[in-house]
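Much of what follows relies on a compact textual record of a protein's fold. Each token is a code from a learned vocabulary of local backbone shapes. The record below shows the convention in full.
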Amino acid sequence: MRQHIIALIDCDCFFVSCERKDNPDLQGKPVCVMTGGGSKGIIVSRSKEAKALGIKMGQPYFQVKPNFPTAICIPARHHRYSDISKEVMDTIKTFSPDVEVTSVDEAYIDLTSLDKVYKSTYTDIIKKIRQTIWDKVGVPVSIGLSCSKTLAKLASDKAKTNNGIFVIRPDKILDVVGEMPIEDVCGIGRRNSEHMKFSGIFTIREFLEKENGWIRQAFGINGLNLKSELTGIATSLVNSEQTAPQSIQDTSSFEDFTQNIDYLEHELNAHVHTACQKLRRWNGYCGCVEVMLKTKDFKYYAMEAKLENPTNGDQEVRTTAVRLLKGLYRPNLIYRSTGVTLKNLTYGEIQQSLFEQTKQHDDKLSHLVDELEAKYGRGIVKAGM
């Protein structure tokens, strides 16, 4: 069986790194990025300096401010992070077309046989990738290298404390990961982890020592695949073909609680634009729009409506979304967030019904706005009233 060489590239403290890219004065300081703003913020990314202070992931800002006065807390700018993520992923793809983007800050790359192409060792190749991302994008990354996705993920975790690079060689797998807790394996899940511990399996070595028949009976084919991955036989290969989403959602919490319907509408319009822009990148159309409102005390309200014709245009979706918002809104309630979900997504041409004509609306004006924003920055074009 052909042995694969797979690397996992993971951006370090990605949101913080993005802020430091735009503001180099933040380098070396305890920086946190938080959702929302003001006292309602929640920490979602921390620099190593902030971690050293004792700031926890998910800690509310109102606790961080008095207890860690030197910490710099910045409201998240997800649109900017998305742009920088694309720069990182585009840079990775210059080394190999076999890249699987798994999140905004993480991607697998299949390097099998590229040592001959680059006339270099695999270790030197990932060092080159890491340095190139830093030189071109200005974002630090950690890279783990091994012969399966599962081992590459374990290696990338170790890379964060080993100068950004860590390799698990095929002949050293058990020496490196054998005594690691089984719950450290990505994808195990809480239920399977508890099942393994109940069966006396606490480490990766103990799991690999189990007979295949027992693993198959206890965990099915996925258990056997996991054993193969942990022994260096890749069963989940790098897939560069991204799957079109079944729905697209865009939401966020407000900087301050509000009862103002105009503010709610303004925020919702921004979410509509972002969601529709993502849909247009997939050359897709939505047939249903859902709007949600969440109150100060976390009560959740939502309403959806079908569109007359599938569309990817901001204006059509915005008109429906605002109508739904006004149907949900209650002036006596205080709100903490709003958002939109595009549903019933289709891609390509819709097969027409014999009895009902369905017309897709591919909004050329919105595509033009996308191009202008890509060139000059988000918000360069404003909608007239």
Q: What stands out?
A: The chain has a mean pLDDT of 89. The chain is about 40% helix and 20% strand.
